[in-house]
Amino acid sequence: MAAPIPHPMREKLLRDEVAYTMSIKLVKSIEIAGMAKTAGYDGILVDMEHSSFDLETTNQLCVAALYAGISPIVRAPSKDPFFVSRILDGGALGIIVPHIRSVQDAQDVVNAAKFQPIGHRSSTNGLPHHQFRSIPAKISNPVTNAATMVIPMIETLEALELVDEIAALPGVDSLLIGTNDLTAEMGIPGDYENPRVTEAYERTIAACKKHGKWLGVGGLHARLDLVEKFCKMGARWVMAATDGPLLLGAATKRGAEMAALNASVVKSQQANGHSVEKKATNGVTNELGVECIARSQQFDFNDENTTLTHARVNGYVESLRRRVAELEEKIKVAEQKHVQARTASLGTVDVVSPINGKRRRSNYGSVSSAPVNEQIAANGEEQSSVQDTMSAIGLLSNKAMAESRTNTGDKPHKLAIIESISAALAVDGRDPSKASSSQPAYVMDDQLTPLTRNLTLSPFHRFLDWSVWLPHIDENRLYEQYEAVLETSDQGVDPARTALPRFNTYLAVAIGISMSPDAGRLSSLASNLHAAAVKLLPFILHSQEPLDTLHCMLLLAVFSMFSASGGSTWHLMGFIMTNCIAAGLHKTVPPRNSSDSEATYRVEWLFWSVYLWDRSLASVMGRPFTITEVDISVTVPDITEDETASGPVRNKLALSSHLITHAQLISDVLGSRQPSPLFSYSNLCFWREFPPQTGGTTTPTGPHFDYLDQLACRALILMVQPKAQNLTSSEADAESDSEVEADTITCCKALIEKLYNRSGSGTTVSFLDAYDILAAAVAYICLVQRAPQPNQTGLTQTFEVVSKASILLTQCSSKFSALSIFQQFLLTLSTKMMEGQGSLQNYQDLIPPGIPSYLRRIVQRYSSSRTISNSL
């Protein structure tokens, strides 16, 4: 099945919430769609019945609404298919038809609006609803039918009499009462309080509830008391406002305010004894006895050509006074908001968090590395929001059209988060090194396969065993959620209440499948579980726990490392760390709530889970870190302080802490301070020699500890710095460089052989493993060939290592097809080695774009050093 069409209005109705639209009858420009989105409306209702709009204008407004992320609904002039089908082809997601007088009238609308087998709408392709993509009708028509809302109007006495039969029609999604026309037909025009109006609503609401349809309220946007009454009775969407009255009302209000202001100024002047016509003077007279009028010129702070002259001093001072008054007023408002928000915030958090809209202290948008006074931090670093500050200096809001700048901090712009996650998931995961749009993936069956213990227990345990990389996850609590989901999988459940447990279960099983020997056989199940989990995100986003969304995004990022269908890991991790910083998790640990006993994760470890993957991803791909060490003030939790943790939990967190130490070591190696290789190598040796103990006296073993060798190899490759042989250096430096290079050669060869021997067990790898394999092979080739004349044994070993690495990369490219370039590059590089050093002089042409920068430097330095060596 094709991907569902985003339809905020319908999605809100499915959640049994009240949706509301802005009617468009005056404004023809497409900007009105973005304004409606910013104002918080779920859709626009383009009114062709009561306006002069033609089809072209209507279609442009509909397409603008689609791209703005709100639902375009159109009221057609009549039920004529000439209008209905062309309106829908132009981008509308709903069609309202007035003056319905019979069941056949409503059926005619269904026939014109729905494709076969529901209606008889002419099939077409490249619709704006599907981003103008060409999708087979067999796939696109059912999806389009599901998203297209057919809304007959109940505004005649005949339709009211037949309302039950009209609501029962297949293909009718909603009814809309046109209150004005209905009262006119009743002979009581505009008498909204008449009991007959209430009876009409009661009758229509009963028919809608009986047949599972939604009712809309029209013509009452000036009577919100009645709108609220009918919505509480069962109506579920409202024609809430119209562009013309909105503009006229706001303009009239401001005109009245200015008239009152003018009257107040005139009255004040008269009270002070000044004539309105007389200009104020500064009391100074010249030699002729003429009073000098004070020069006053307004000072514009934002004018780039503004300079301070004698003529402007007076206006400058007055402008400063006005500005001080404005800022004092803003401070008062900000302090009031701050006090109100603290009860709902976590710790000392002050600015709006993109995770859930609660106020948090952070340096969102710019993470300062300067030390902050502790007392200031304790009392809150800033009282005004980032958006207030940006507005004050004349910049656009950092959320642009996505959020109203007049209503910041009250409610989060949660749709922007969903859209950002959706965008990252839409990136083609087959090439982790770049962002390219993915081909549409069609799922033949939208129904999730019933989860059984036999099917899911093994991959679920595999995920739990691997969760040392996610130290924030509480395995016991996650297992309880897994059991609960299995027990209720075949029963009707509240999606909002069970969204997080089901999301955790679906992703845990999907990730476990993706890293298991059965990944190929069960790939469809993993993809379906991933898709089902993504659909639960809106429910989780509306939960009261602010960090749920962050936890869910992290699971999505992990899945994308093992599956090309999971989207872009790089974009997801960037978005995750941005939200971490915005939430202030890099500065302080949120206090535990009273309900934390039921939490799936340990909040004090959440930032470090994100930190681990940020460092891993950036280091293997040659990308910058999303946050520097100097900006992190929170410390790794002390395991010994948690007296409630069991032995296995302590062992897991000890190993997680060891992994974090490695990530910090990588940060030092690649950071701005650039410590000497010998210093970094000494730290790495200490890290390798003292792994965490698991309660025994022997060296711990297991798959997790095997991975420590891979991490050590990764660090060594980043440390190794090949130097040209003609460059002078001290004996100590030369000896240390030689020691690091020898250790790197040994580790690279051992890693490739270990992964090659393990490949026969069917264990799958992530694309990070592919980068490590390539790095190990390239580093091995370059360092081994540094000998002036490699012997035959050395060439044979090199060939063996290259062959094994090539096989491993081939296996990786079966999941991430774009990584096949790694194998091609490795084979080309090894061939050039066999031909001789001179053939590497044009190394720029040899290295494809997707190769990480640190490997480019190794090849470059190797090529330069060998070229110089051969010329000596």
From TrEMBL:
GO CC annotations on file: cytoplasm
InterPro entries: Aldolase/citrate-lyase_domain, HpcH-HpaI_aldolase, Pyrv/PenolPyrv_kinase-like_dom, Pyrv_kinase-like_dom_sf, XnlR_reg_dom
Residues covered by the Xylanolytic transcriptional activator regulatory domain: 569-643
Entry's transmembrane regions: none
UniProt feature coiled coil, ranges: 310-344
Keywords in alphabetical order: Coiled coil, Lyase, Metal-binding, Nucleus
GO biological process: DNA-templated transcription
Alphabetized SMART domains for the sequence: Fungal_trans
Molecular function (Gene Ontology), one example: DNA binding
Similarity comment: family membership: Belongs to the HpcH/HpaI aldolase family.
Protein's recorded name: STB5-like transcription factor
Species assigned in the record: Fusarium napiforme
